[in-house]
Structures are given as structure tokens and as C-alpha cells.
Amino acid sequence: MRSISDSDSCGSEEEMAVKKGPWTEEEDSILINYVNIHGEGHWNSLARSAGLKRTGKSCRLRWLNYLRPNVRRGNITLQEQLLILDLHSRWGNRWAKIAEQLPGRTDNEIKNYWRTRVVKQAKQLKCDVNSKQFRDAVRYVWMPRLMERIQASSYAHGHDKTNNNMCNTNNESSDEAKPIMACDNSLLVSSEPQSLSHATTTSSCNLIGDGRLSWDSAENNGSMSTTLWQHWDYSDLQAFEPAYGFGDADLWTDENICFLQHHLAHDF
DNA sequence: AACGGACTCAACCGCATATTG
DNA sequence: CCAATATGCGGTTGAGTCCGT
Asked: Polar residues composition bias: which ranges (predicted)?
């Protein structure tokens, strides 16, 4: 990055006129046109040159989270949820880093998802979202169940996956990073975690060289299923949309909450 | 229909880091 | 090396919307 070279037009009165709040269509249009011509970056000078009474930060955020091509909005798919849970278990609140693995998703959206869905469930379970108990619950209960549902969805809809349309209306471009996730039917999943009591680690499955996830058997001590993450290929995040009836609301059922509460009460 | 609480998500804020002169 | 500035990131807020009563 560089310092802006212009020193003329950033007077203090202009600072006073900085606009905040929701962006208008006109502002969006100005920003899009300007970036299309001049490219991204130099946000402060961009804001001034384009005539936007916004801070550079605001312009950058608006572009990255909303106006940029390829931004995906709308429901987080099961595959994306699974990946978020997995990556968060390893990287914590590194939202930008996690977002890199979910093409089209922004750190802001993932952060919002985490706060509105996952943290909410932790509260229902009366445990801290960063506690070992909750992390283990996510790892050994929610993630396997997510995979079950993904697999079920795969079997139900696998033959016409290529015709699936995405919920969002944004265009996908060919130069976007290759999505990490795809489901293939070789996935093996245990139907129930036998126990939570031997969960002693916080990391879960591992991304291996070719982009697949594999279960780390070294961590897989105790009674946990060893067949959980046998063959997980991520290449089509959009294959299964909540429209098929497997939205996240379907995942966090009362039944599952009770199941978790039972284990949290007895195993920890 | 009206109200209030819960929820969502776009946007802002503060801080840390990177870059430039 | 240092100060000034830009950028990036994570946490937080609050307006709009949804939903139950």
C-alpha cells in the first residue's frame, strides 16, 4: 500500500461531512464504476476522487462485503457450515482466514453466522462457546450429524447435482479460488457418537494435500468412531441448498439439544 | 391489528500491522 | 529509524424484519 499523494482535497470540513449508515444505490453505483475503471485499493483516495462522502474504510467494506463480484449471500449450506465448524475448531475466530476457504463468503458473513447460530446454541446448552465441552460437542455431535445429512442429501439428489442452481443471485467467476468442499458418496459416517467422554483434543479433521478432509486417527483415541472422515472431498459448496430441506434450522433440533445436554451433564 | 421480543446482517469502531516518505 | 498514513481484522452495534402473543 502507499500513502496518498494528493494533499489538497482532504480538508477538515470534508471530514465533517463524512456520511455514515446504509449505502444508497447511487453510492453503490459510483463505487462500482470507479473500481471497475481504477481497480481496488487506495480506498481513501478512491473515496475522495469518486466523490463519495465516505471513509476509505467504509468504501472498502462495502466493496468487499457486498458489491464485489462473486460475493455469495444467502443461506449457508450444510457443507459450508461443516467447514466453518471445522476450521473454527482449528483456527478460532480467524474469520478472514476461514472466509478464504469459502469462496464468495466474507469474513463478516461467517462471523455473523457464528454469532447468530453457533453462539446461540452454546447459550442454549449453557456452556461457553469456547469451552472444551462445546467444542467437543460440535466436533463429535454436530459435525457428524451434519455429515449424515449431507450424505443423505447426496444420495437423495446426487444424480442431478449438476443441475442445481445456487440460491444467491450473484455470478460466479472462473477466476475465483477453487471451492474446497464437495461431497462424494464414499463418505462413511457413524450414526451416533458412542460417547463424548474420551474427547481430549480440540482439532478435528484435517485438510490434506488434495483438498480433502481426513480424520486424524492419532487424536481418535477412546471410543469415537474411526470412520467419520474417511473420504471427504470438497469441491462443490453449492451442491445442496437449504431448499432441499436440510437447512441449519433443521440441524439444531430440540432432539439434538437434549442429546447434547444429556452428554454434557453426564460426561464432563 | 398492535405490540414487543428475538433475530439478522450491514456497517461502524478500535486496534494492530504494513507501508511509505 | 521514525512518524504518518493506509489497510486489514475482529468485536460490536443498531436498524430493519420476523414472529409469537
From this structure: 1-10
